[in-house]
Amino acid sequence: MELNKIETLLEKYFEGQTSIDEEQELGAYFSSSDVAQHLKQYQNVFNYFSTSRLEESQKEFKIKSKKSKMFWLSVAASASILIGTGAIIYSNTTDSASNDLGTFENPEVAFKETQKALQLLSKNVNVGIESVSYLNEFQDSKNLIFKK
């Protein structure tokens, strides 16, 4: 009777359906000396599992701390922010010092340059006003369709 039970437990074991108690029962059976002849081929498998549980690793593992990584990451981020800010400030100060715009010695030249700038501005504003006129046409068409 016990041999039939062991064979059914083996089938369940290889299908992955055994419980821990059933696996311990199989381990106890195969570690004993009275294993059936046709089941001796499985004895090495279960003996391996029982001996491998007793093994311990001799190698020591070092666990790296995340704090040291975070420290260096924060240092690198701070340094990059400082370098970027310094580069922006340096480029702004050198550009404003080298370009002396808006000052003229001769008032007539200043007047002509001002007229050019105002004409350019007027031209761009007029383009924007023309675009708005289409909105008025749309409003008129909408009022015709949807009478209040």
Supply the key terms.
148 residues; mainly alpha; 0% strand
Structure description:
The structure is a single chain. This protein has 148 residues and is mostly helical. The chain contains 5 helices and no strands. It is elongated and about 120 Å long.
β-strand percent reads under 5%
Distance between the terminal alpha carbons, to the nearest Å? 97 Å
Largest sheet: none
Helix tally equals 5
Quickly give the structural class. Answer: mainly alpha
Q: What is the number of E strands? A: 0
What average pLDDT do the residues reach? 80
Low-pLDDT regions:
none
Secondary structure: helix percent: over 70%
How would the global form be characterised? elongated
Q: Please give the radius of gyration in angstroms.
A: 44 Å
Order of helices and strands: HHHHH
In short:
The chain is mostly helical and 148 residues long. It is 73% helix and 0% strand. It has helices at residues 2-15, 20-31, 43-52, 66-98, 107-145.
Give a topology summary.
Blueprint: H1 2-15, H2 20-31, H3 43-52, H4 66-98, H5 107-145
